[in-house]
Amino acid sequence: MTFRLHLVFGICLLGFLPSFAQKIRYSYEITKEDTLLVGNIPDIVVKDLPFFKSREDYSTYLRYKRFAEKVYPYAVQAVKAYRELQTDTEKMGFFERRRYVKEKQSELKAKFEDPLINLTKGQGRMLIKMIERKLEVPMYRVIDDSKGSFTAVYWNILGKMNGYHLKEGYVQGEDKILDLVIDDYDIPD
Questions:
Q1: What residues have CB less than 8 Å from 81, skipping those under 6 apart?
Q2: By mean pLDDT, which of 9-23, 45-59, 89-103, 149-163 is the weakest?
Q3: Is the separation of the CB atoms in 91 and 100 below 8 Å?
Q4: Quick check: pTM over 0.70?
Q5: Which is the most buried residue in 59, 64, 99, 109, by most CB within 10 A?
Q6: Could you give the CA distance from residue 176 to residue 145 in angstroms, rounded to a whole number?
Q7: How far apart are the C-alpha atoms of 29 and 40, rounded to whole Å?
């Protein structure tokens, strides 16, 4: 009877918490009287909804949340790709590195160009801020490291025309509402 209860609990846990389903590891403990399903559930952080001074701040928070939900998977992939690029090209020569970066860029472009081209300016800004915060490096330096100074200058000028300076990077406390939203979306290493 107890085994059935634990099994039902385990199945319900998987059904109600699909985001944890991949992170839970199960094992069985068999004793003389009973069989237990044992699972290690990752830590969960529960936060209270922040208090806002005005309705405008609250609507900005909700807008930023929508943006973050949309671009979070791309930010995770971008950070992962940048870190892989750094480790893979660490001991390469200039021309070999350049060729490798060009190949990786064409792979990533084929995979992500269609969804990323449809992002709004706000979503693009959120994506850049999430990447900058995780890497702790301004986007200008990321582009400079991977594609070169000329390309970094080009994208910085294009960014300035759209009201964003790639050299500034992410500054904690500059936009408190943005900080609240990015804190909720932790990009894994």
A1: 104, 108
A2: 9-23
A3: no
A4: yes
A5: 64
A6: 29
A7: 13
Beta bridge partners of 109: none
Q: What is the pLDDT of residues 108-145, one digit of tens each?
A: 889 988 888 999 989 999 999 999 999 999 999 999 98
- The answer to whether 133 and 185 are in contact (CB under 8 A) is no
Q: Model confidence at 99, in pLDDT bands (50, 70, 90)?
A: very high
In the DSSP assignment, the letter for residue 22 is T
Helix or strand (DSSP H, E) at 78: helix 55-88
Burial code (b: 16+ CB inside 10 Å, e: under 16) for 65-80 equals bebbebbbebbbebbe
DSSP secondary structure of 143-159 = HHHHH-HHHHHHHHHHH
12 in Cβ contact with 24 (< 8 Å) = no
**Can you read off the two tokens belonging to residue 133?**
């915060």
Q: Look up residue 35 and give its two tokens.
A: 């069989």
